[in-house]
Amino acid sequence: MAFKQEPLPYSRNALEPHMSAATLKHHYGHHHATYVEKLNELSKGTPYAKMSLEEVVLTTADDDGAERIFQNAAQAWNHDFFWKSMTPGGGGRPAGALACAIDDAFGSHKAFSEAFVKHGLERFGSGWVWLVSDDDGLRIVSTPNGRSVQVDGPKPLLVCDVWEHAYYLDHQHRRERFLKTFLTHLANWDFAGRRMNLEGEGTYTASRAFRAGQEAFAASGKVAKAARAAADALDGPEGGELRAAEARAARRR
Ligand code: FE
Prior knowledge:
This protein has two domains: 21-205, minor pseudopilin epsh fold (3-Layer(bab) Sandwich); 206-252, no CATH class. Helix content is 58%, strand content 9%. 31% of the residues are buried. By secondary structure, the protein is mostly helical. The protein binds fe (iii) ion. Fe (iii) ion binds next to helix 1. Fe (iii) ion (FE) binds next to helix 1.
């Protein structure tokens, strides 16, 4: 089944005046659509064509031989997530548990906003700025080009696209103004709050890491070595001690 671009969660003029219909026409209708088309072209007839979009992203993330598939799959996934990260009438301060988590992590909403903008400005060239959660709480992370943050472990809550095509029509070269507009008028805090409270999210990433660990352990030859050591121990003096201890325990029962 071919990969499909998710529908925009609002109409193309719904984010005006903060993000124009022209930006959405080109960004959603051309840039994002092209990543999905390219992914379908590249994955046709390969095992990737049978995976979910997120599985393709996670499976190809560190595979040099699949870099083009990864970049297009990740860009398709990131853009779906970006559209959900905005909402008409969004921005400002979140409420509830998310507001508390932001205060815990950054000290205040103002400090969080400054850090988010700073990460966006320091991302040289194209990339993404994410609010994520992991075992240490909330963090801000930026990734280059198409890299999706979940391939490195954390759960994404919100993302802002800082490729020039995201802001050039509305803000020209002024990325800082775009980042501030995103936080003040567009950020979908309800979405980020729901993401934060999702149970089980990230399980796929965890199970992938566990499988990779098992494979690395098996490939290292340590499994056979450990099994040999265990067999030798049971046949040798330690085995004798173990059998004697078991016999003593059995007599006491
Ligand atoms: Fe983009």
